[in-house]
Design a protein that fits this description.
The protein is α+β, with helices and mostly antiparallel strands. It is built from 2 helices and 10 strands, in the order E-H-E-E-E-E-E-E-H-E-E-E. It is globular. The two termini are 17 Å apart.
């Protein structure tokens, strides 16, 4: 498998300081450029950008991601939308340990999904401080990323 080009994603946050702390200190992302209303982060070689979005003061502000849909996958309710990175197994374990030590609350605790099946993978889901859902996964054999 060749190295794909880095992806770019921009997402809303309601507190840039909280995003800076979470993505920088908890996830270990190096900070790139920033301005008053956004911050670039290096997420395992990919460019993610936290953009400040002021709350609209609607009832949904009580739950900033009340729009998260959930789909049943391998017996768990997976939040949609979500984003993340496919890591090497050692990186995934180290991240799971770092998140646990930081007291991050998991939506789906780190576990092995599709055990014994094509596409077997380690996965975990959690929210950032703004309520954006993230998934990080790993394969013992990354060539099975798209296995059927």
């Amino acid at each position: 498998m060749t190295n794909p080009p880095p992806f770019h994603i921009a997402f809303p946050v309601d507190d840039l300081a909280a995003a800076r702390k979470f993505y920088g200190s908890v996830l270990g992302c190096a900070e790139g450029r920033s301005a008053e209303s956004w911050i670039d982060f290096n997420l395992y070689g990919h460019q993610i950008v936290a953009h400040y979005k002021a709350p609209s003061h609607s009832p949904s502000d009580l739950n900033p991601r009340s729009d998260l849909h959930r789909n049943r996958v391998d017996g768990h309710d997976v939040p949609v939308p979500h984003f993340g990175v496919v890591l090497d197994m050692d990186q995934w374990r180290a991240l799971a340990d770092r998140l646990t030590a930081a007291g991050v609350e998991f939506i789906i605790e780190p576990y092995l999904r599709f055990k014994g099946q094509p596409g077997e993978q380690a996965t975990m889901f959690f929210l950032d401080p703004a309520g954006n859902a993230l998934e990080f996964k790993a394969f013992a054999d990354r060539s099975l990323l798209f296995a059927k």
